[in-house]
Amino acid sequence: MTFSIHGLAVARGIAIGKAVLVASSRVDVAHYFIQPSQIEEELNRITQARDAVMGEVQRLHQSVPKDAPPELQALLEVHMMLLQDEMLAEGVRYWVKDRLYNAEWALTSQLEIVSRQFDDMDDAYLRERKGDLEQVVERLLRHMKGLPTSLPQPHPKKQASGSWHQDHLLDDSHDVPLVLIAHDLSPADMLQFKQSVFTGFVTDVGGKTSHTAIVARSLDIPAVVGARNASQWVKQDDWVIIDGDAGVIIVGPSPIILAEYAFKQRQAEVERERLARLRHTPAVTLDGQHIHLLANIELPEDTRLAIEMGAVGVGLFRSEFLFMNREGRLPDEEEQYLAYKRAVEGMQGLPVTIRTVDVGADKPLDRTAKDQAHLNPALGLRAIRWSLADPSMFLSQLRAILRAAAHGKVNLLIPMLGHAKEIHQTFQLLEQARQQLDKKLIPYGPLQVGAMIEIPAAALSLPLFLKHFDFLSVGTNDLIQYTLAIDRADEQVAHLYDPLHPAILQLVAQTIALGAAAGKEVALCGEMAGDPGLTRLLLGLGLRYFSMHPTQILRVKQEVLRSDTQRLAPWAQRVMHAEDPAAEMQKA
Ligand code: PEP
Ligand code: MG
After folding, report:
1. pLDDT, position 195
2. Environment of ion ligand 2 (residues, CB < 5 A)
């Protein structure tokens, strides 16, 4: 049966492949393919874990005190029964032997399948055994990871998805294209994707400018987020088409639909080749305005793609990605310095704007931190607030950036500033970092210092920012989130997340205009900069520095080459003041 699921389009293109479902697990699970010669070894790992966990549960069962609640005995008995369950064992053997999944992946895949069978049961008692099954699998996974296996607990709430281990995601033994379907993936998970085998992905949750979506866009593989129950509807191995342009997932497509989408895929390839010819064309408008198309990157290695796409510099290096997936051990000054230096060298003399760490909100450092995401993390200890709360960590980042500046042109960018005192503290710490390097006779280079304008308070106090900073960079992802009071990661309010809201356009236009009047560069590095549908409007509002995913540069350049900023300016003013800017835009 063919059916479709609608979500939010976040990364363009068409992917066709077999679904791989990531089961929810509270234990980080590595997913990788094994070699046929490793099947026995992998099955042994599962048997050993099962025997060890069985032994533990049996010992517990024997030592339960007489006055313990009878439910505890019963619970342990259920766990022993599940550990010996043939359906679980059979399925796991299948994933390992026939599909060459590693043991942990096989266990979570089978858990997903059996869980669904439990969900379908009429008997409430049996349905509730699903929680026990999850606990049993979790104990096995913990044992395999060498983590302490805890006592059986009353059924826990499900948590976010398993995470991805880059080393293991490389697979060259399979040629069937695979697409990944998950309830949720954190930006840290997505980062691991950079070298994965998947040709597309879908998540149930997430908004268009959630950080997960942003990383997905940088991978340039078709992706849909906010697809609500996709991970419930799609089954392991279903053939799936992901239409990243329309935000649609087609499950179990008929041969005719498959042929249609395969055709679209080829067309997209032809378009990509056509755009590639613009790589070395300077981005100059019809009326001779030079437009700076810069790259947003997450890792130093991304500079390769930035150069390939003709970026004239890095406008936003999201340094926080160096801090992720490190199980609590943050990169020290030396490690950061080497990473920033690699980025500077990678850009071959072009400028690199390094943003100081911006963690918090939907970018926890790891999944444990995500569990603490109560209250309202977007309004909490995030970005510069996080840095100023830990001066020694911040100083080591500032020293690393200063040192990297000895190797090429580096700009320092500070996220999420709002208060004059944060500005002063930042500059004091920067000075202190210089003095520390001077004292140790460590060489460093000059820095231009910029502020991100991404909270309304900053956009409404521009003279303060223009007085202290060399340049500004508008972070529209957050500016929209905070101005319109829309959580950028929440798909339930995604329809209200509107870059064309008159309030947003006015804040953006005002920042560009005041920056120009003060003779300071104003860049825009939010997702708006990489949306070719908005290029003409932003040009008309006076923007000259656009920073975006390298994969967007050529599409935006194509728009720039067709534009005349003088003719666009009055139109852009009309759009900005219209009650319905989106409708007014059509009148260009
Ligand atoms: C922004 O907020 O627009 C931005 C570029 O920063 P980030 O998306 O990393 O919050
Ligand atoms: Mg931001």
Report:
1. 62
2. 454, 475, 478
